[in-house]
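Sample intake sheet
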Amino acid sequence: MASDGMKQTGFAAKMKYISLVILVVQNASLILTMRYARTMPGDMFFSTTAVVMAEVLKLLGCVLIIMCQYVGFRACTEHLYAGLFQNPMDSLKMAVPALVYTLQNNLAYVAISNLSAATFQVTYQLKIITTAMFSILMLGKSISRLQWVSLFLLFAGVSAVQLESTGATSSGKATGEKVETEQNPLLGLIAVVVSCISSGFAGVFFEKVLKGSVASVWIRNIQLAFFSILLGMISIWTKDGAAVSEKGFFYAYNWVTWMTICMQAFGGLLVAVVVKYADNILKGFATSFSIILSCIASVYLFSFHITLQFAFGAALVIFSIYLYGKPARPNSTNSDGQKGLPTKISETG
């Protein structure tokens, strides 16, 4: 019995470090791949179609997971039918976060097209602030004084990075050639801020629905993907309808495009599997390492120049993430007398 306990402890310890590596690689590589896909030379794919394809793959991935959980075709179909069609009004709740996530994912492409990968990675951490605010308003959660300080430092760090980026230029490397990329930092900032607000609201709304439901998280993700596909098709029709009709749905798709789509679709599912082995401190370290990795990679991939102001702002953001995930002392309390607990931050969307 003791040996079994030691084996389980050893496995949990190994999975903790494996999950750290997975979280770092997923966080950094997705941003870098998206940036590369939007700055490489040649014809550009329609980002609205990429958003829809990511949701299609995500839906298929969730169905596959349920098929692995329920042995037999009949048991699987009965579970899917019960979760998706027996209570249509309950399923309809997921249309709200689906709409917001569709907006967020489309804005992410706008932001990454106008901001460097490193700047986007740092600025996107504003979602911690928006998630915290919506958690307080919608879930009645409270955060400690230390977390309030960390949110202020996070805002200050992002502000320093954005003030520096307004006068900076960035160029990208593709197939051995240096290609100048026109950017609108103000448009990128607006897009990433609205995306962070959308991420915070949708994540907290999704958490609220999960807490008041008996449906599994995979069923909820299928519902979310289904409505996201419908709303994404409307987005294609309104924004790129004529161009898609003329050139085709998969116009200018290449291996980088498909890699970006697959990382968007399966990256979140992968994180959902390993995140149970990672506490808030580990997730904070993963985010910090991914910011550092993105900055280093951007120097070599996109000729990004790290200035002293950018380094200072990024350091503030990394330090604030560490503070936010740091557990409160047992006798520390919030302003309402409750013990300070880290607010849950959604890893997806």
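Comment: The two ends are 42 Å apart (CA to CA). The mean pLDDT is 82.
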